[in-house]
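Folds abound. A case:
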Amino acid sequence: MAVSEHPWPVSSVPGRERAAVDVDVRDFKAVYDRWVLEVARWIRAMGGPAADRDDLLQEVFVVVHRRLPDFDGENLPGWLYRITAHQVRDFRRKLWVKHIFSRSVPLTESMPAPGPTPVMSVESRQKRDFLDGLLSSISVPLRTAFVLFEIEGYTAEEIARIQGAPLNTVRARILRARKKLSALIEASR
């Protein structure tokens, strides 16, 4: 299954019903086929730049392919999540360093998305930009938990399992993110 077959953003949750199905952790293709959509959603939730999400997804699975023979087979979702988090973090750092040292203007994601009408496209883009701005102002752990829970539809238990964090920590992150975002929305009015 090619990465280009999965348009951004991933809005449905195909594969969630297959969550209980065991995957042969030694078979890269089986791991890829089962987890590519989930990893793509995690990249989006972690704030991976829209223009670079396919590249990030590819980088995650390059690392998975390279490290799969050494993987112990325990907690595959958690292992994939940690690889994804590290790849997104490293990508953001590289962009920041490149921007600082090159003194160039970073590429923007403000190309209008095609929509039914120009007005609807502008309104949708403004809302997305506003939400992205709010989300970028909170910490990565809070943002990730919030996006996975509120936008992507994961349960707190699923997030805790994926992140390898205690359930109460995940719930606290979601609550703190809600409070911070509510305060930011009020302050922007």
Confidence is low (pLDDT under 50) at residues 1-20. Residues 1-109 form a domain with the Rna Polymerase Sigma Factor; Chain: A fold (CATH 1.10.1740.10). The radius of gyration is 17 Å.
